[in-house]
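Sample 1 of the test manifest.
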Amino acid sequence: MSTSRERVLARVRAALTDVPADEPVVRPVERPYADSHGMGAALEVLEDRLRDYKALVRRVPADRLAEEVAAALERRGASTVAVPEGVDADWFARTGAERRPDSRERPLELRELDGVDGVVTACAVAIAETGTIVLDGGADQGRRAITLVPDYHLCVVRADQVVDGVPQAVRRLDPARPLTWISGPSATSDIELNRVEGVHGPRTLEVLLVE
Amino acid sequence: MSATFLGIPPFPEAARAAVDDSRLRHNLRKATHTIRDKRGAVVTELEEDWERLRSEGAAIKSHTLRHLDHYLEQLESSVERAGGHVHWAADAAEANAIVTRLVQATGETDVVKVKSMATQEIELNNALAEAGITAYETDLAELIVQLGDDLPSHILVPAIHLGRSQIREIFLDQMAEWGVAAPEGLTDDPRALAEAARVHLRERFLRTRTAISGANFAVADSGTLVVLESEGNGRMCLTLPETLISVVGIEKIVPTWADLEVFMQTLPRSSTGERMNPYTSTWTGVTPGDGPQEFHLVLLDNGRTDVLADTVGRQALRCIRCSACLNTCPVYERTGGHAYGSVYPGPIGAILTPQLRGMSSEVDEALPYASSLCGACYEVCPVAIDIPEVLVHLREEVAAGPGHLGEKAMMKGAEAVLGSSHALNAAQHAAGAARNLVPRHLPGMAGAWTDTRDLPDVPAESFRQWWNKHEKGQS
């Protein structure tokens, strides 16, 4: 092991002479805070928060998902979309948009990804109180790059994936997977604190909430 | 590229210039009040749970610091188990050398950077430039600061001291030298400026193969690194390149994955006043086929263990860099960030910087005094750092040092006068008689006091004199 490692650790130990040797290293899990804050029915709260971020939201019945995907892509004028290989093919039964499948084994080139009109994915978890959608790289969500480079992200969120608060989401997620938490479209406030949507990530986030 | 905080005068001098800049004061006032109001609204929304989250956040960080050696070793093994490489850096020079060597090993001469306080602290960009490597900042505000050869002035919105027309000028003058030029006819509309940055940076994101980041949190039990951001430049840097190098202060550790549920609620609400920031990325080592296939974590000490050794000052290491203390501070609001002469401005900078650097210079000795001790910073801190307590503690250290002999001599004299009623009477008579001769600024050593304060008017007579004339014998 390097000498820097030993040096830093020795300094840390020397700095902590006030800590009793028998003080337990592990903290008891108490969670004195709430799992959520009773702000209303999860789907309503999620929809409200997403709209607050200027995301587009639509509540759709499960049996109309294919029509809604087709309608959303048509409204957007998206004729080519990147799609993770694990997405249910039925979602695209009604659209004429050309699908470009992507996976870890067969990834799209970056330049190709930069050229598509949008990307369609599922999600792992959604948090109502904060209006957050979490992607975990699962087969129907794909590599992190595909939801980043195109300018339009259409995300399908199932009702059973929605939780009220952040602690519930953290418990459902696996830290070993690469996670992307998305709360509205890309935004900056760096110029005189004016909010501008879309700097580098997708400028438009559209969410289909499937009930 | 060459901009550095070295050479900025001590706080009272730097603050005087800043206070005279009316545009700066206008920008700062608008920014701090806007963010402060938004923060208040989203914190109130969580009702009494906010205080529970706040004290739990403080407890998690305090516990981690008390067992930092254990958690550092745990983090190291978790990251390596997940396919990452861990390096240790005792100081800035060592960290810079490690990063330079890692970049050179990739064969690249260009790197993209996510905004990172730690790499600003060690002045990594300058070190890389000396080795012929160009580091491109990709956060919009950091890009503005870099193109303008300027310095960041706020932890969260580093270009807050600049107005839109200044930013437009910087883009028109400098973008072409760094890559894709600003479009002709660029206006100062924030949307147009953000679009120019998008076009300028996209080309770079798509071709740069090495990235450097910091991290908001490093989770010991899972080996997960966490970055919160808004623009997506972070995601670009963290996922598109082949090699990722993260420079992380040793105090950024949290013990368990579950601990994040506290900070993912308190950090966004405290910093931007949002329920959640637009993007958070987490990664654990490398994931085959997704994101960088080589990951290096550089653990940085650079004075942090000195802070750790001070049982009062240690709490400064709980800081999660939310900047709520800046936005609420009446001193910061009037002086801006540059006056603090450090990458860490505002109340947290006033306690963190002198501890990290060791109070060996006039700049660092002045910082514990850059406060009115009003306590607002403590009230808003999401990890309950008692900043006023640490300020007073550091002032004691400065006062005990050799630099304040004049103050000590004055106190000795004051003790003699205040200790004797005859001496006090005589002094008050003399002061009353000479009141019109008192200058606005005191000469000599005492001048340091009146440089930063208005000297109060001396009353015509003392209270005792007044009492003797008006009230004595009436009862």
